[in-house]
Amino acid sequence: MTDSVKLMNGSTDKSVCAILLAAGSSTRMGENKMLMRFCGKTPIELCMEAFFKHADEFVVVVSDSTREEALSAAKRLWEGRSKSVKIVNGGKRRQDSVYNALKAASSDIVAIHDCARCCVSDEIIASSIASALEKGCGVASCKVVDTLRFADSGEVVDRDALLCAQTPQCFAKNALMDAYSQVDAEDTYTDDAAIYSSAGNKLYFTKGSSSNIKLTGREDVALVQAILGNKDNVTEKSCGSVPQFRIGLGEDTHRLKEGRPLILGGVHIPHEYGLDGHSDADALAHALIDAVLGACALGDIGMHFPDSDMRYKGINSLELVRHTAALVRESGFEIGNLDATVTAQKPKLGPFRDAMREKLAEAFGIDICAVSVKFTTPEHTGPEGRGESMTVRASALVFKS
Questions:
Q1: Which of 68, 152, 339, 370 sits 20 to 30 Å CA-CA off 125?
Q2: What is the DSSP letter of 160?
Q3: pTM
């Protein structure tokens, strides 16, 4: 099935088609990375923006879960502009997805790009397209900088003879289609350059970049955010003018359960009931984490520390706070101050206030005077008033470092 977005009746018979791949399963990420947001935009939209001035035609390869985002991103970006965008279904393998896109494309040159590489620069795109226009092929790539060894023998591999292939990978469309037609149905290829060269075509490599990283695992999230936050062209397009000071809000509610320890702000509070959750269920720490992440537009606690990940089973939430603080600073922000209100009928929490502030300040890496913790009772109303749960609401002020 192919969906077409008609924008200003733009012709699809153009010189360059950007084929954007957004149909992967995101197995290693643990959630669909194509729907994550960086500077308020998904990798799909960021890549559409990156290729806008380089391509005349777009084919976006999607899964059922990314189709709607691709369609809405195309309409947001190009309504009223002379571009044509086609949305096609992905296949079981990467090469099947690309082949589906090639059949939908009508341009002379195809620029194939993984949307997981949402930090791609204008220079990288332009260089690979120019090479394809001149030589029929242009594959963005980087030199290997780390020492490489064979796992069995430990022998060093000559890295001077090696390259790390990236995307975009650009080709004369007809030559690539011909190469695809010769592929054995049982063979699996990791990129289009391998298919192109398997048909006897010469590969030409263009300059990639270490910042053109692929969003693959959870550890890549902070790197992508940091790169996008420091790229002037992306910041202008995706984030607008980032103010010096930014405010975020967080809220967390946990049920009370008999036999669980009650932990708030890293402090163990004697009580017959504790908060129930995957970690230590420290609702105060969790609300503050969400407030800080929100101020920096870095997602939420569930994105970074999902309750489906057994690494966080029973974890001390102050460890999550420390990780969040590091992530915030890697993204170019500092924490100004934190404020939180705990809503609970009982027990009396006032005696533990300073201990909470001290532990939270240490974990966030800020002075205790920048941490405020307040308590209120709901006067026996609602689930908190009935002793069924506790709720914490928090705010955070951050600033560009």
A1: 68
A2: G
A3: 0.58
